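Lab notebook: predicted structure, single chain.

Context: the supervisor wants predicted structures on file for every construct in the current expression panel, including those that have not yet been purified. This is the next one on the list. No modifications to the sequence; it matches the entry in the shared construct table.
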Amino acid sequence: MDYSPDELKMVRSILHTKTWFGFDLDDTLHEFRKASGAAVLTTLSKISSKYQIPIENLQATYKKVLAQKMAQSFTDGKTSDDYRKERFAAVLKGFSIETNTTLLNELAVVYKIELGHSLELKAGAKSLLTYLKSLGKKIVIITEGPQDAQEWTLGRLGLSEQVDYLASTNFFGVSKVDGLFEKVLEELKIDAIDLVYVGDSWERDICLLRRLKFSPSTIVRMVIISWMGMD
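Prediction complete. Output recorded below exactly as produced.
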């Protein structure tokens, strides 16, 4: 994204005045799609080997199941293991395979181990958060996902100490599009204008933040990194 020197100066000036910096987590601070894709592939490969089902068929079914399960944006308070077991149980059901607790627990463990191995920070993400903290800024993560999984992810990525508050759709029971941002602002006792937010989704970040008048929001993502002097 190109900015003129005057525009960049203005954005830097605005950012310096803010106390709170908010970030989405998945695919903003780390490569979630890549990591979850690896975890899904490893788990489906285990199913494929055990039941002699072509991996392509399993992947197609999983994609449909995921789309259905993601519709609620993890707002019903279940744990990450619960969600994962539900998805894999639905996949197995699609091939008339009977499930049991032992099998689903085993698949959930396979998924989590591979996910942990595959987690990867976005370039400059940790340095950015560390720099913000050195300036006395407060950092809030506002994300869609199970609370326990997002806490675990922050720990695995080494970001827990940099984060002042973690807000998930799972904890608040509401999705981004249905009022998560408003809930977080109320919880933190701040106005939208007082917080800069960085995300990766046009529909679930930028459009919502424009409505709430965040200052400035996702559109300055690369400017923030440039302003900090990060790679």
